[in-house]
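so my prof wants the structure for this chain in the tokens format not the other one, which i didnt know existed until like an hour ago. anyway here's the sequence
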Amino acid sequence: MKRFLAVLAAITVFVGAAARQYVNNLDIKVVVQRDGSATVTQVWDVELNEGTEWYIPVENLGPMTVSGLEVSENGTSFSSVGNSWNVSWSRSRKAWNCGMVPKRDGAELCWGIGEYGRHVWTVRFLLTGLVQGYDDADAFNFMFVPPGMGAGIGHVRLTVVPGFDCEPWTYDNTRVWAFGFHGDINVREGAVVAESSESFGYSSRLIALVKYSKGMFAPSVVKGGAVQDLIDKALDGSSYGEDGAGAWFFILFGLCFIGFFIIMIWIAIAAALGYKWKKALFGKTKIEGWYRDIPLEGDIFAAEYLLAKGGRFSSVAPAQNIIGAMFLRWIMDGSVKVQADPSSSKRVNLSFVAPGVSADAVEEDLYQYAKTASGANLLLEKNEFENWSKKNYQKITSWPDRAVTRGMEWFRQKGYFVRDGVCTDEGAVQASHLIEFRNFLKDFTISNQREAGEVKMWKEYLVYAQLFGIADKVAAQFKKLYPAEFSELARSAGIDDATLWHTIYWSNTLSSRSWNTAVAKAGNVNGTGGHSSFGGGGGFSGGGFGGGAR
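here's what i got, hopefully its the right format
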């Protein structure tokens, strides 16, 4: 027992050390100009309790240059010392100052930490020569987040947009790949967007490779040669090609570092203890208790936004869940009718007879996608939505992001944001109700607030349970405790008890298969978006190794 306690104490010390610096979120926006130069803006949401400064390496630049570092926090700009930054200065000397440490092929961007605790820094600098000219295209292959940082990163999002008048970026003129992290990269609404789906560990990095049609830019840096050579070098060892060995190499490489294990232990312990929600949105990291009413005025997109963005370590809202929830909502309110599938007693077909379902463009678009997939007979049968999603993968893979954006807009319109992603006190209360409602549904059998409730409310209960990924469990609890009411719920949707079970199962299966098909199609070697590759990414510029507090 004493030995166990000693080991536990040692782990606690390591976990505490890992928690001294942590990046809740890193948002990077890159605005590129016709000459290939780019203004890079980073917003770091950081919690730390060590070091005197924060630094990021921007090296391996070749013909590129980095300059014009600006840092601000809470509207206050830091004073710049240019290239005269001294890493040996005291914490008080570095506070509210920023500067660069020139390196052989780039620089370290540095600024003072000031007081320990939470900081949200806005960092801006200029890169010349990001987009470079090749004989047949213009392109960049740049590391925007380096490996070896002293801090884990909960979530990263990179957005690249044009800063000049040009034809809209689409897959017709823009191809994209991403390396070094778990997530995806796509071209959406005229922008290149890469986003992580899992936390960044010690060996994680974010490399984006983007190829543009020749003539869109007039790059000041001309490399010459075929851009395919750059692409081939980046794809070597990636999961985009047939040989995915490189991915395993980098995974094993990361596992060799004790820092990676420390961060994972810390995350696992924090999650197990319930400290898994972002304080910026919920006002607290641990949310207990029950809430039995439909939260957020029944706006399911607002709920999706919180689940997608509110986890401290990763999203707790798989994209297919919101798709399945919408299907179930349409079935529950009668917009979509359920028919037995003559070829299988455990599968149902869905009849899309309504011309539309909502004035909300995001919801209506998904309905029209499914209706189109149902064909001339307007009956969505086995594999039809899956096949349609494979052909129209860009629409399907971008739809959940649109749902999240629509949910974020709800919080803005309600005045629940101090700023985007940070709730007011009232906003945090409303946000917490969603997790309390989730707790109530998960704990329904032991809840002291348990009662049958109205059928209309239980329809919404099941829709939200589908969003949470627990619809089958919630339905089982309801049927066990209130069989008569469960039957009434089924009849109100025009089906029997058994068909309601199959409908819940099928709405989940339908959305999962269609989503996975679309994602698999998107993540191909041709650069038409989809999942990133953890391995590969060779031939990049920028980045370096290290970063964080020191």
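also thought this was worth mentioning. The CA atoms of residues 219 and 277 lie 44 Å apart.
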